[in-house]
Amino acid sequence: MHDRIRRLSRLLGIDRAVFYTVALRAWQFTAGPVTALLIAGFFHPDIQGYYYLFASLLAAQSFLELGFHVVILNAASHEWAKLDLDPQSQITGDADAHSRLISLGRLVFLWYAIVALLFVIGVGLGGYSFLVAKSVEGVDWTTPWIALVCLTALSLWSLPFHALLEGCNQVATINRFRLWQAITGNLVVWLCVPLGAGLWTTVAVAIVKVVWEAYLLLIAYRPFFKPFLRPPTGPHIEWRNDLWPLQWRLAVQGAFSYFAFWLFTPMMSVHGLAVAGQMGMTWTVLTAIQAAGLAWVQTRAPRFGMLIAEGRYEELDQLFRRLTILSLAIVTTVAAAFWGVVYGLHALPHPLAERVLAPDALAVFTLAIILYHVPHCQAFYIRAHKREMLLFAGVASSIMIGLSVWWLGGRFGPIGAGAGYLAVIGLFVLPYQTLIWRRCRAERS
To answer: What is residue 138's three-state secondary structure?
Structure first.
């Protein structure tokens, strides 16, 4: 029996890293309906609107973080091809690669400390101004918002530590950590919502997240990070030559990515906080499905970088094709099942149906995330080469999606926003990025 499970896991491309990532997404997908039922049962529709608006506004950190974690992961993976981790979680291997890795870590730790401070000032004040305009009498959102912004800034500062560990092929451990983080976070939500915590629920979850991150950095991987306290004595990563060519392109894309992924809920607030809540809940589930499918490819990003560093391109291409096809099939199946559940809720009709988008609007968004899956996979492949060939595609698509959500979503609601999103992906993102992916393979050869 054990051998059969092992063979099936190999056939499906499931290793420890994928297992924990899929388990995480499966937990989120299973826990999501429970959370949705509690929110629907205990939150006023306006509170639900604030709940999801908080999440969308906090995502504006992309304007400051600027995709630098992707640079860290790929740069670290190329150094890790000559390094390893001993049973005591200490780095061993080539001294020069070790020195460059240390220099990379010290640089990004300082960078993100500055970013976290700017986040508190920029997103905190900007979000406050936006929420003031949406204020509803009787809803106390000010203090929870301030506390949430400060806690999120701490989590933002920990992001490069995670990226560095993932680049050093610690993906399985990081994903196991995130699974436990998600489970405890959901348990806190399920406790706080019935007790009447309201928007303070978001603060409680943020506290849980910060505690887990402190454990990861100060206890679980303390031996790993200890050498980063001292300056390296050997070769350094040169920011201008080794990081900046990729970073500035990702930075520009990161500044625009908010419009492609997080504008939907704030924009739907023009039709009322209840509609914003429907959009927020639906988008949360769809992005969880998308992230679960990407687990097969995302968790192999360090492996991609190591294969490239070793010149094993044929093995890289075979692995990428197999994982992309498999993950696309999974996303399609699960997304279609979610649409079926929502259709059934509306057909009954069930009270929960009023908290998610209608089946017609959901169908448009579902098709869009399925089509978007292939370009997402291609991006991991391209960036594993420590190159950024997606600058124009990323910026242009984000602008087009943002404009379509603003114009069509403002006039026709969620179905208009979904139609604009689908059109940009199907007519521009998928065909254009496929051409870029092909060019990357041709130039590498």
So the answer is: coil
Other CB atoms within a 10 A radius of the CB of residue 363 amount to 19
- Tens digit of pLDDT for each residue in 303-351? 888 788 888 898 999 999 999 999 999 899 999 999 999 999 989 888 7
Report the number of secondary-structure helices (H) and strands (E) in the chain: 20, 2
Exposure class string for 314-345: b at 16+ Cβ within 10 A, else e = eebeebbeebbebbbebbbebbeebbeebeeb
Residue 96 tokens read as: 């020069």
- The percent of residues in the chain predicted with pLDDT above 70, rounded, is 92
Cα dihedral across residues 343, 345, 348, 351: positive or negative: negative
Single out the residue of 250, 302, 239 nearest to residue 68, CA to CA.
250
CA-based radius of gyration for the chain: 22
* CA–CA gap between residue 200 and residue 189 (Å, rounded): 10
Q: From CA 8, how far away is CA 391, in angstroms rounded? A: 39
SS3 assignment, position 283: helix
DSSP for 174-187, please give it.
HHHHHHHHHHHHHH
State the DSSP string of 223-262. Answer: HHHGGGGS--SS----IIIIIHHHHHHHHHHHHHHHHHHT
Q: What is the pTM of this model?
A: 0.65
Whether 60 has a pLDDT exceeding 80, the answer reads no
Query: Who's near 68: CB < 8 A, 6+ residues apart?
Result: 108, 111, 112, 160, 247, 250, 251, 254
How far apart (Å, rounded) are the C-alpha atoms in residues 224 and 70?
A: 20
pLDDT by residue (tens digit) across 18-36? 777 778 777 876 777 688 7
